[in-house]
Design a protein that fits this description.
The chain has 28 helices and 38 strands. By secondary structure, the protein is an alpha+beta fold. The longest helix is centred in the N-terminal third of the chain and has 28 residues. It starts with 12 loop residues before the first helix and ends with a helix. The structure holds pyridoxal-5'-phosphate.
């Protein structure tokens, strides 16, 4: 231990010169140097080489001097490149000499080389220089790893492990507040830090990289040129090396923790630190300062005239006061992050877990926020009236501005993004405690702006951590903190700020909340800290922080640290990323570009078209982050972007894609799997790329098999886009631009039971409607023709979701076959289990067609199609003309098709379609009881229609109403369609994964919309 009662040895310059000559054979001049304990001289040899002659304090045990020389020897042998002093041996070849002091004491003496460079104390400290210092220390300590000597096992005040001993010196501190400050650090050290030190890595360290012991290269001022004075070296915890260096290097820094982080990062790059070491660094820096100021105070009492002892005292106190105001968890987060560790343990796992599970979270609003029309609140714009009035603490004005904006733009939910730089934080509470003169201005929560009273629910099960009222102006008002411990995720906290005080009365710490349980309501300005009503929703991955300590607004500089400690809560709140970032062209730009470079009759849905940028399950997400419940696009059979299909397509595309002239497993496997879903006899498959192409191929087959081109179709049918299919599609040829019915095509009445003549008994509908087919056959016969083909969708769709009367196809097929024709089922819309009870909708009619065509859902969005027929028809088609289709049946398409079949079977999606379809039917029928305009509700599985009528008796189509409902349902974030000759049938074909919650959402929106539109009509 340093013994201040043994002053530095009183050796004169002349004696020093004599010692140098006698022991080291160097004649030269000596100049005295400052030293606390020893007597040091700068020696200039005749050859101009420079040395330091050190006459060691007599109180220093010899073993310590021997430790020093052994240390130099070790470095000399193992790391000759390190910029540290080199030991000069005595003339006898020893590392250490001995000299008698004037008091008769025996002094160890050694001579080391003088290192060039300017002390750090006299240099400009830059971040690069700090990093360089860290790396110099890292290199040194790496070189010292494994070195040990009995003299290294010293016990003295400057060993950071003994920093707690400073408590015994507190009485030397006169000022009560200063004493209390030191006590706070000492208390934390004793309670938390000391017990952890023994488990940390320990080794020999320099232990005194103060700014006089660090030399800077004057030529390259960002580089440390050397480290000197190993007088305090000892065996201690490795992290002390960094802590000691920081305690000096960050004094009076604008951003002390940032400076420490640079130094630590420099060290870490050379000699990786461990998390548990960094976790104590903040306190160890503080404890070095506590040791320093208490020792100075103690010594000042005894050696008032020794300026060396108090040289860094004032800046040390300044730094201690700053550190005292900082949150040690935040400081530690900054230090950890600088070294590449997560800011808080588990932080990255929390964000990863939330991202992976975001679709399973309970919505935090009554209606899922993703589905609401959203806009960013303009707090990012300092000149916006809402920002100006908020900053001026005039919440009523801010609210009025926002309400008017929402009304004008149809916005239901305002969003204040995470990380946004804002000028609204005007009060003193937003002063930075880390960066001198800086303010905290970057928002670390996610704000949801809705009217006061909007109810808020927890997305996950939670325990209430705290509920409190924060009274500060522009504070949180009522503040709730919940702790979540989802399985497979580290615990984390959510903060709910600006709530109504009601939550404070209802909730108490320790209460358990189920996922989806009410947390509270958005508060009015009088209760919420004086803001336009909103929720400040924030995550803290550090669960040890009290609610008030969670930083709601942070320094720009530590953006990346806050991002881990307080990650963006958008995923947890269910706000899609598109809300914050728009890519590509705007909607009007795309409309204009389409006009300029695409066919003008390429139609667009809705008078205000939607730009979708992403699909996910049952949702389509638009360019503004609004998720629409997709109940219309039946191509995404398993839901948009189904991972199995995506993976199958990507995997096969990455391996091989070619045509069917080469052998490949996928096409035959797929043909076997597909035909296995069909009734016996339908055993030969061929593949195409679109429903139209499949129907065209079917047509060729029918013609070659029967030798006839005459076909019977149902009125208002649609079968495809090629000319020969337009000719078979009354929906096209009878309407605008159509040329009317071609002579070879014969139309049978739509077998629409809802519009059947009232006098027909229901059980005769099949027969009665089939008579229309018989009439067509008779008509043909009169013309000397006969049917080659009967083609019908198994559930006519564009005709208005028409469900064929029971037994209808059996009647018709019998008639057609008797006349020598064949029967084809167009399952392009309705196939692949959509009806739930069966794979194919024709099966519900108890018939087996001769040819089945498939498309749309077959590849869940991948463009493919299929035709399946009998071996007889396939044989007739094999008339010598080769069938080749460049893309049809390629390996990628077959991989997609196989994945679709796999998922339908694996996930029981047919059963789901049946159950949810029945549920929807029941709920729509219940709506029919309440709304007279619902003339008919019909559906099978997830293929549904609601026919709107002006009055139930006349069944007059409510066409305008249906359009309005369709538009308003879209405005409420749900996609359906209208269909039928009068466009008065609401059409729904949601994905097969549609859940009961999705069904409730759909019915809820249809119900609300009907009520709203009918109220307007009234
Ligand atoms: C019943 C029916 N058949 C055939 C087609 C044509 O399919 P595609 O558009 O893939 O060519 C459609 C398309 O809407 C359809 O609804």
């Amino acid at each position: 231990m340093t013994n201040v009662s043994h002053p530095a040895p009183q050796v004169s310059q002349n004696e020093a010169v004599d010692i140098a000559m006698r022991h080291f054979g160097i004649a030269g001049t000596a100049a005295p140097l400052d030293s606390e304990r020893d007597r040091n001289f700068k020696l200039t040899a005749p050859d101009h080489s420079l040395w330091i002659l050190k006459i060691v304090n007599a109180s220093e045990p010899l073993v310590e001097s021997e430790f020093q020389t052994a240390l130099f020897d070790h470095l000399e042998r193992n790391s000759p490149d390190l910029a540290v002093p080199r030991l000069r041996k005595t003339v006898q070849g020893a590392s250490l000499a001995h000299a008698k002091g004037p008091g008769g004491g025996d002094h160890a003496v050694r001579l080391v080389s003088w290192l060039p460079g300017r002390p750090l104390a006299e240099s400009q400290t830059t971040p690069a220089l700090l990093e360089s210092l860290g790396s110099a220390l890292g290199r040194l300590d790496r070189a010292l790893q494994g070195f040990i000597h009995p003299g290294a096992l010293r016990s003295f005040d400057w060993d950071i492990r003994q920093a707690g001993a400073a408590r015994q010196r507190l009485h030397h501190i006169d000022d009560e507040q200063d004493r209390a400050l030191l006590e706070r650090f000492l208390d934390h050290f004793d309670a938390v830090v000391a017990a952890r030190l023994p488990a940390l890595r320990a080794q020999v360290i320099h232990n005194d990289a103060n700014d006089w012991n660090v030399l800077v290269d004057p030529e390259r001022p960002e580089r440390v040129a050397g480290l000197i004075d190993f007088g305090d070296a000892l065996h201690s915890v490795l992290i002390a090396e960094v802590a000691v260096a920081c305690a000096y290097a960050i004094l009076d820094a604008e951003d002390p923790i940032g400076a420490a982080a640079r130094l630590a990062a420099g060290f870490h790059a050379e000699y990786p630190l461990r998390k548990e070491e960094l976790d104590l660094l903040f306190d160890l820096i503080a404890m070095r300062l506590v040791t320093s100021v208490t020792l100075s105070a103690a010594r000042r009492d005894r050696t008032a005239d020794n300026p060396y002892l108090s040289i860094s005292e004032a800046p040390a106190w300044r730094l201690l006061r700053r550190l005292d105001r900082m949150n040690r968890r935040f400081a530690t987060a900054i230090l950890r992050h600088a070294c590449g560790f997560e800011a808080a343990p588990g932080a990255r796992a929390v964000t990863g877990w939330i991202a992976a599970n975001r679709l399973q979270l309970a919505p935090i609003l009554d209606r899922h926020p993703a589905t609401l029309a959203k806009a960013l609140v303009p707090y990012g714009d300092p000149h916006n009236p809402m920002t100006v009035t908020s900053a001026a603490q005039q919440p009523e004005k801010a609210t009025a501005w926002w309400d008017a904006y929402c009304a004008e733009h149809g916005i239901a939910l305002g969003i204040g993004p995470w990380g946004e730089a804002r000028t609204v934080y005007t009060s003193d509470i937003f002063q930075s405690r880390f960066v001198e003169g800086a303010r905290r201005a970057n928002h670390l929560g996610l704000d949801l702006f809705m009217p006061a009273g909007t109810r808020l629910y927890t997305p996950l099960a939670a325990t209430v951590r705290s509920v409190e009222i924060e009274e500060d102006p522009l504070g949180y008002g009522c503040l709730v903190a919940l702790e979540h411990r989802p399985q497979g995720c580290p615990p984390f906290v959510t903060l709910w700020g600006h709530m109504a005080h009601e939550a404070g009365r209802r909730l108490k710490a320790g209460d358990c909340l189920e996922a989806g349980a009410l947390v509270g309501e958005m508060g009015a300005p009088v209760e919420n800290g004086g803001w336009a009503p909103h929720l400040h929703f924030q995550i803290s991955t550090d669960t040890s922080l009290a609610a008030r300590d969670i930083l709601g607004v942070g320094e720009e500089r530590y953006h990346a640290v806050w991002k881990e400690l307080f990650p963006d809560a958008a995923d947890l709140a269910g706000i899609p990323p598109e809300t914050f970032r728009q890519n590509g062209r705007s909607r009007p730009e795309i409309v204009a570009a389409r006009k300029a470079s695409l066919l003008p009759n390429l139609s667009i849905s809705y008078s205000e078209p939607i730009k979708f940028v992403r699909g996910e399950g049952v949702w389509l997400i638009d360019d503004r982050g609004r998720a629409y419940l997709d109940c219309f696009n039946n191509v995404c059979h398993l839901g948009h972007a189904h991972p199995d299909v995506v993976e199958a397509i990507a995997g096969q595309a990455a391996k091989l894609n070619t045509n069917t002239r080469y052998l490949h497993d996928a096409i035959v496997t797929y043909a076997e799997r597909l035909t296995a879903t069909l009734p016996a006899g339908l055993s030969v498959a061929s593949f195409a790329c679109s429903g139209s192409e499949a129907n065209s191929l079917m047509l060729r087959m029918a013609r070659s098999h029967t030798g006839r081109s005459e076909a019977i179709v149902l009125d208002w049918a649609y079968h495809g886009t090629t000319q020969e299919l337009i000719d078979l599609s009354p929906y096209k040829y009878k309407r605008k631009g159509g040329k009317g019915r071609p002579a070879h095509v014969f139309e049978a009445t739509i077998p629409d039971s809802y519009h059947a003549p009232a006098e027909w008994p229901v059980d005769e509908h099949a027969k009665r409607f089939a008579e229309s087919v018989a009439e067509q056959i008779a008509d043909m016969a009169r013309q000397g023709r006969a049917p080659g083909l009967f083609l019908a969708e198994s559930i006519p769709s564009v005709a208005g979701q028409v469900f064929l009367p029971e037994g209808y196809l059996a009647e018709v097929y019998a008639l057609v076959r008797a006349a020598g024709g064949i029967c084809a089922a167009d399952e392009v819309q309705v196939g692949f289990g959509r009806v739930g009870s069966h794979w194919w909708a024709f099966e519900t009619q108890g018939v087996t067609p001769d040819i089945v065509t498939m498309g749309k859902p077959i590849g869940n969005g991948h463009p493919m199609a299929a035709v399946v027929t009998t071996s007889e028809i396939a044989a007739s088609f094999n008339n010598g003309m080769e069938y080749f289709n460049t893309f049809g049946g390629n390996p990628v398409s077959c991989a997609a098709g196989l994945a679709v079949l796999d998922v339908i079977e694996r996930d029981g999606l047919r059963r789901n379609a049946l159950e949810i379809g029945n549920y929807l039917m029941a709920r729509f029928k219940a709506l029919q009881d309440r709304y007279d305009v619902i003339g008919d509700v019909r559906g099978q599985g997830l293929f549904l229609g609601i026919e709107l009528v002006e009055d139930r008796k006349s069944k007059a189509p409510a066409t305008a109403l249906a359009r309005r409902i369709n538009d308003r349902v879209r405005a409420r974030g749900v996609l359906i369609g209208t269909e039928g000759p009068h466009d008065n049938v609401l059409k729904m074909r949601p994905p097969m994964i549609f859940s009961r919650a999705n069904a409730d959402h759909l019915v809820g929106v249809v119900d609300e919309t009907l009520a709203a539109v009918l109220a307007e009509r009234a």
